[in-house]
Specification:
Layout: E1 5-10, E2 23-28, H1 36-44, H2 48-54, H3 56-59, E3 66-70, E4 79-84, H4 91-103, E5 110-113, H5 120-131, H6 143-147, E6 151-156, H7 160-185, H8 193-201, E7 209-213, H9 215-221, H10 224-230, E8 238-245, E9 253-263, H11 283-297, E10 303-313, E11 324-327, E12 333-336, H12 343-358, E13 363-367, H13 372-377, E14 382-386, H14 389-401, E15 406-408, E16 426-427, H15 435-444, E17 453-457, E18 463-464, E19 474-475, H16 480-491
Parallel strand pairs: 1-6, 2-4, 2-5, 5-6, 9-10, 9-13, 12-16, 13-17, 14-15
Antiparallel strand pairs: 3-4, 7-8, 8-10, 11-12, 14-17, 18-19
The chain binds ligand BES, manganese (II) ion and zinc ion (ZN).
């Protein structure tokens, strides 16, 4: 379910404006100044724009706000949307302006008279990201929606060819984000571990190398803790390895994702209220998959490997019990005090495997790991943990440029006491205090000295019931753009 938009860029053409159908979008500066295309609309509508701009509706409105004039005389278009520009519009303001266009509806063709707004590629990105809607399971009632033909979104901008070129890698980002959002929005009866692996195998079509490791292979590798999480489910546990080889001969950078397709908590079962949200507990694996798709679509000049651990956490006669002791691929034993702290068990083995097999130059894992990170940071920021100042600095910068909230939290050996086990090397839970940090500290045990590493706890940002600037509702795809940019800055600059 990607956005039904077909974006293109054309040179400014004032003569065409009167005959354009659908909706026109014009920009006006905060003090009411119009560019030549907006002035043309104003003249054709016998000063409708001037009246708007001089009204209190406009003068008192916030920069970035949107105003719609319906069925204007003098134009074939059904509406003119006027967006009051931000004071000094940068890429973020451009993306938000694009989102305003999507919010006003994308059922009819849209022509954006981009005039004074630079960053038109960012505008087009915001437009397509906000136009996404997950409609797979709505019975269609209306003929128009049923047609599902792509709707043209045309941006009139100076140097249209350059704008189209700038948009190409951003369109690849949007495709990656949509791939992530689709995976996260899918219910767990559809997106089983098997279905997830099949959707990743289909990425071979865009040029990724994809391997699916089945239970027998995982058993052989010694991934007992990952298998322990999935053993109560009818869906077989899997690890999927996706490789993009766009760089030279150097070792790859690794992305690792938690892919719990549904988290009931297992025998330590979760309360019923809100449990349905745990269909998004594969969000980390979803982001890794989206980034890999983006890298392939834009033919990134970098070597990146994405690894996801796909399991379902169910209560069953075969399920892991609280108190069970399991051995990790690394060799350490874990006492499973709470079967609901399953994400770290999955990641422990996949992180170890990633390092053993690929010896990566760096590694980032993403996981909807703890409820505690939502208590700490809400839905505005992901929790960031790292053992490497340079890598984390570059990541935080990339996240900031993409307006994806990310906030660093500490690690430290002082927290290890909380993870002591009576009978094994380590316990899988550290009690209530600093729940996100002890989870990160658990993961750190499976990161080799010398591997630059970041753990991203995305429990609060992977999904937004209310929606944000660039997301209608539901899965956000948080992190796809930040990670794509990090890889671009780090390896392709
Ligand atoms: N998948 C959950 C974390 C989560 C909570 C994600 C809310 C998204 C929204 C994770 O597996 C979990 O259950 N964590 C426990 C850990 C606890 C048992 C130490 C938690 O956070 O309560
Ligand atoms: Mn859990
Ligand atoms: Zn979980």
């Amino acid at each position: 379910m990607t956005a039904p938009l077909e974006t293109s860029f054309v040179e400014p053409d004032a003569e065409a404006i009167a005959g354009l159908e659908g909706r026109l979008v014009a920009f006006v500066t905060p003090d009411g100044a119009m560019d030549p295309l907006a002035r043309r609309v104003d003249r054709l509508t016998r000063k409708a724009l001037t009246r708007l701009v001089e009204s209190e509706t406009f003068t008192k409105a916030k920069p970035g706000s949107s105003h719609v004039l319906a069925f204007p005389a003098g134009l074939a278009a059904e509406a003119v949307q006027v967006i009051k520009l931000a004071r000094r519009p940068g890429p973020e303001a451009a993306r938000k302006a694009g989102a305003e266009i999507a919010k006003a509806g994308v059922a009819k063709p849209v022509t954006v008279l981009a005039g004074p707004l630079g960053n038109v590629a960012d505008l087009a990105l915001g437009l397509s990201l906000r136009a996404y809607d997950f409609t797979a399971y709505r019975s269609v009632k209306d003929e128009d929606a049923a047609a599902a033909e792509p709707v043209p979104a045309t941006v009139m901008a100076k140097d249209a060819a350059a704008a189209a070129e700038a948009f190409a890698p951003l369109a690849a980002q949007a495709e990656g984000v949509f791939f992530t959002r689709d995976l996260v929005n899918e219910p767990a009866n559809v997106l089983t571990t098997t279905e997830f692996a099949e959707r990743l195998a289909a990425l071979r079509d865009v040029g990724l190398e994809v391997e699916v490791l089945e239970e027998a292979a995982l058993e052989k590798l010694g991934m007992r803790t990952l298998l322990a999480v999935g053993q109560g489910s009818e869906s077989p546990s899997k690890v999927v390895v996706m490789q993009w080889k766009g760089g030279g001969d150097e070792a790859p950078f690794a992305l690792v994702g938690k892919g719990v397709v549904f988290d009931t908590g297992g025998i330590s079962i979760k309360p019923a209220a809100g449990m349905e949200e745990m269909t998004m507990d594969m969000g980390g694996a979803g982001v890794v998959s989206g980034v890999m798709k983006t890298l392939a679509l834009r033919k990134a000049k970098a070597n990146v490997v994405g690894l996801v651990g796909l399991v379902e956490n169910m209560p069953d006669g075969k399920a892991t019990r609280p108190g069970d002791v399991v051995k990790t691929m690394k060799g350490d034993t874990v006492e499973v005090i709470n079967t609901d702290a399953e994400g770290r068990l999955v990641l422990a083995d996949v992180l170890w495997y990633a390092q053993e097999r690929f010896n990566p130059t760096g590694m980032i894992d993403l996981a909807t790991l703890t409820g505690a990170v939502i208590i700490a940071l809400g839905h505005q920021n992901a929790g960031v943990f790292s053992n490497d100042e340079e890598l984390v600095g570059a990541f935080l910068k990339a996240a900031d440029s993409e307006s994806e909230g990310a906030w660093r939290l500490p690690l430290g050996p002082a927290y290890d006491k909380q993870l002591k086990s009576r009978i094994a090397d380590i316990s899988n839970v550290g009690g209530r205090p600093a729940g996100s940090i002890t989870a990160a500290q658990f993961l750190k045990r499976f990161v080799k000295d010398g591997t630059p590493w970041i753990h991203l706890d995305i429990a609060g940002v992977a999904y937004d019931g209310k929606g944000t600037d660039l997301v209608n509702k539901g899965a956000t795809g948080w992190g796809v753009r930040a990670l794509d940019r990090l890889i671009r800055d780090k390896f392709e600059a």
